Amino acid sequence: MVTFEDGQQKADEKSIWHLLVRDFYWIPPDNAVVKVLPSRRKSEHGKVKFQLFEVMFATLMAELRSDYQWFVSPNRADEGTDFIGRSQFLQSEALGIAASITVGGQCKKREKVNDIVQEVGGSLLRMAMAENPTFFIVALAANLEKKRIGDAKGIIEHTHKRECQILERRQIEALFSSHMAVMHPLLVEALDSSEIEQVLAYFRGRSLQNSGLYEISAKAPERVLAGEPFIVDVEIRGMIEPDGGLRLRWRCGQSDGDTGITLVGPLGADHTAGAPVERSMTKDDNPMVSRVQLQLVS
């Protein structure tokens, strides 16, 4: 049975997303963390039309990964690229080297998606030809099950030979909610005061918890020797929070504190504040992945 509250919640959600995918005319200020992606077809002057959802998501990425330069595309016929992030990790004029990581992003505003691959496939093909990104990020305004996202991710990565991060509505809402302060100037540009209040009220109280934004995997040796330190590799995949925001905290799994396993490193992980999870920066690194090594002794 559908209750009144359920129906009202769905109506509110529909109304808010109707605002989030609105087009608006905008000139990024000089201090904007997101710049306009230049058009290959024509030069553009003055205010240009953008989609609010795309600018908000690009701004979110700039907040999460400030070590990248982020660009958003005006809402026009393009090469399938809605936003781009670039990070140059090796440059030498003398050697003629300019190596960088490029994140190519696509946002889809459709509320119902029957086939994820079909929905984004053409755009990703055009983006791959135009920008040759190292990784894809796809933001979908539809509510989607984890299995459907996983199946689509597998097809896209197998076809394009590059990793792809796919986010659906609940995950995007959780991230927007946690970073609404940096979204507010965009809302002011695109919406009137009453609409802004609706958006703020909707996102107030939404949480990152249980949003499925992270996938954590660990790889441990099959055998270890008692008293000899061993290494467990931990990988965190997902939308990584800014530096200092992602921390590892080691807690004993039993109430009596005697698990037979002792943490040796990283230092500080067994304290209340925990240890920061560091990000490395090489041409093979996925910007949506962090890795940490646990050194343990049995």
Q: Which tags fit this structure?
A:
298 residues, alpha+beta, 6-stranded mixed beta sheet, 4-stranded antiparallel beta sheet, 7 helices, 14 strands, 31% helix
Compile the SSE list and pairings:
Layout: H1 4-20, E1 23-26, E2 34-36, E3 48-51, H2 52-64, E4 69-72, E5 83-92, E6 97-108, H3 116-131, E7 135-140, H4 146-160, E8 164-167, H5 169-178, H6 180-190, H7 193-203, E9 214-219, E10 230-238, E11 247-248, E12 262-265, E13 275-276, E14 289-297
Parallel strand pairs: 2-4, 6-7, 7-8
Antiparallel strand pairs: 1-3, 4-5, 5-6, 9-10, 10-14, 11-13, 12-14
Helix pairs in contact: 1-7, 2-6, 3-4, 6-7
How would you briefly describe this protein structure?
The chain is α+β, with helices and mostly antiparallel strands and about 300 residues long. It has helices at about 5-20, 50-65, 115-130, 145-160, 170-180, 180-190, 195-205; strands at about 25, 35, 50, 70, 85-90, 95-110, 135-140, 165, 215-220, 230-240, 245-250, 260-265, 275, 290-295. Strand 7, helix 4 (about 145-160) and strand 8 (about 165) form a beta-alpha-beta unit.
